[in-house]
Structure to design on (144 residues):
């Protein structure tokens, strides 16, 4: 029998490509109020501290140049994480310059990612035959 910490939850892009493995469910992650994205802590590979949470983005391509997004309180620099199969943006990282502790740096912050709502489906939902057309309609793309 596995403990909750050792259970790995997997999530796929709506095109069925595996993009996330995590010991936390999407539902258990905090939500960013500005855009309802899930806040996904990523492991700090240089740290020796242990944590019960682990997550890994897989089969995604991170933009090398940021996209500037207008927000209610100003602008954000986002580096989008896109599915390597269909290129749907499934999440993003913020630029280091937007955080007090890394304000003088630039580039994507690597200790947290934000997962966009509607772009991921759990492996369990895929196995159960969840209606993918409804998921695709949520994010506003046309099925091929």
């Amino acid at each position: 029998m596995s403990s909750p910490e050792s259970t790995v939850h997997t999530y796929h892009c709506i095109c069925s490509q595996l993009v996330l493995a995590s010991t936390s469910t999407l539902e258990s992650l905090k939500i960013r109020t500005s855009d309802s994205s899930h806040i996904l802590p990523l492991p700090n590979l240089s740290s020796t501290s242990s944590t019960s949470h682990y997550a890994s983005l897989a089969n995604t391509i991170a933009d090398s140049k940021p996209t500037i997004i207008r927000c209610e309180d100003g602008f954000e620099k986002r580096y989008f994480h896109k599915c390597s199969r269909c290129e749907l943006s499934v999440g993003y990282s913020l630029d280091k310059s937007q955080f007090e502790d890394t304000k003088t740096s630039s580039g994507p912050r690597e200790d947290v990612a934000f997962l966009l709502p509607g772009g991921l489906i759990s492996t369990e939902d895929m196995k159960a035959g969840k209606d993918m057309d409804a998921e695709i309609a949520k994010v506003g793309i046309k099925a091929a």
